[in-house]
Structures
1.
Amino acid sequence: MTELPVYQIKITLADTHPPIWRRLLVTGDTPLDELHAILQLVMGWDDYHLHQFIVGETYYGEPHPEFDDYMEVKDESKVVLGQIVSQEGDQFGYEYDFGDSWLHIIQVEEVLEPDPELVYPLCIGGKRAGPPEDVGGVWGYAEFLEAIKDRNHPEHAEYMEWVGGGFDPEAFDPDEINDQLDLLYDMDDLLE
């Protein structure tokens, strides 16, 4: 049985123009480490890099002794979404890949009662493909897009080979994302 509430959240990749975003329904009892896995999936990333959630002045992530002197990071696996948000308009940050610094703004759009007909998490909207891993952040992504759309660009061939032959920046399919979320949760069930 799903605990109340369900949060409709909008995830926007900061500084992208036009914006890259996703809209999800996520239960309030979702641990932040699980939310991280969900965000990786819906953005099309492979979890190659470090990440953190930023809630006011508090950082949540995977604590690591190597970083203890640098900053305090609370264990994301011990905190659920409902502990950091409670109402419409609440927002927090999620940063992925500290080198490329992909900052996501996550905002609660609605607080809903669970629908017994739905399986959570659920992607209900979005726009545009997530940038490829290691493309160089927002500015590197802009250069990448410029190069792949112009066959005469000096880096066109190199980028096309690097990205595997093609990349559609407008591609977004919520049904495909939901199929992948189903697989992710089916695998979790098998491992328990």
Note: DSSP finds five helices and eight strands in the chain.
2.
Amino acid sequence: MRIHHVGVAVADLDAAIQLYTDLFGAELMHRASNEADGLAAAFLRAGGAEVELLSPLREDTPVGKFLAKRGPGLHHIAVAVHDIDKAMADARAAGLELIDAEPRIGLHGTRIAFIHPKSVGGVLTEFVET
């Protein structure tokens, strides 16, 4: 298993980017948004690790609801997989509940799928095909 990135929900994307770059020396690699999902994101690299800062474009989005309920903080962990279809089939066979029935394209431009937090000790977990 290899952690691909850690997703952090933030209310102010620009302020969070500033914090991570100034305080931790992270390098801003890429920014992206998805109007349909109501999400803006920044991808930062710090050494060998990647942090994905997530900010809602609207309150009625999953990240918007997350912030309203829990406030800013850890949103998800993402695990790199070579074959997302196999990873999803293995997860289903192990009795895990998937949020996504089929892989979809994420903001990294790769196929992703999420496992429901109740199946993984309360942590939203994402498969990222690499």
Note: The beta strands are 2-9, 27-34, 39-46, 49-56, 73-81, 104-105, 111-115, 125-129.
3.
Amino acid sequence: MARIGSFTNPLMLGFEELESLALQLSKSPCEGFPPYNIELLSDTQIEITLALAGFKEEDLDITTEGNRLLIQGRVEEKENHQYLYHGIALRKFQRAFLLADGMKVKNAVFENGLLKIDIQKIAPEFKITKIKINQGHILTKKE
């Protein structure tokens, strides 16, 4: 039996990718590490801040894959250390954020254990296009 998607409304043309993204997000782990803030700086600017105590810049990797912002961190655990209390998490992590169309990562700064990522919203250009009606027929799959 074929799976019926959430975006099956016949008026929602071309939203199949949104359904795929929603499925990806639902499968991503809801782990609390690393802690982060998302701050609205202005109508067009957002800043994501991740608390990464113990990490160095070379331990971090920031990429965008389509509309997905992916932040990964990996720290080599120091061997032969004997802790009385080990409360600073230095485990590898992966944190993903889904960016809306028109949102672009502009800058990333790592300072004092905080990774700050600046994201800018670029307003889409609103354009009205007149569609000419031609004589003839529309090509179908068979043609």
Note: DSSP finds one helix and seven strands in the chain.
4.
Amino acid sequence: MTMTSIKQYFGEDHDRLDGLFTEFQGLKRQDAAAAKLKFKAFITGLSRHIVWEEEILFPLFEERTGMTNSGPTEIMRQEHLMIKKYLDAIHDKVRVADPESDLDEKALLDVLKAHNMKEEQILYPAIDAGLDADAIRGIKASMDALPEERYAVCCGGAGHAH
């Protein structure tokens, strides 16, 4: 994906992740191995997305606005903790090929839907304001430079998601 704006790039990543999760849900009762692969791609991608936000985007927003330990980024961080809780619960079931994760999946999707909407409608446009092409390239380079172990959380990965 080419990054022309934060809103465009991260919105497309939200859509990509939603697709992976939907595929996982469709497979989990029919093909546990295939479902596990989709979930692994989902959890790794979502964890990377969260690390990008918490380590690159949120500090940029906070530096610009002076809002640290309060405001939208603090709410997003709290929601990231809730997302991680549901991800962990689903992951525990995926590990043992138990498809009975519907309640945790619903809770996760409820949080993600509202969370993504706030990011796409409020936070990302605020970050985009005043960014030129060079700044966007710099942000993308910072994202690309993050080592995989910062977000590889599935199946023996050493990193962690917030």
Note: The radius of gyration is 16 Å.
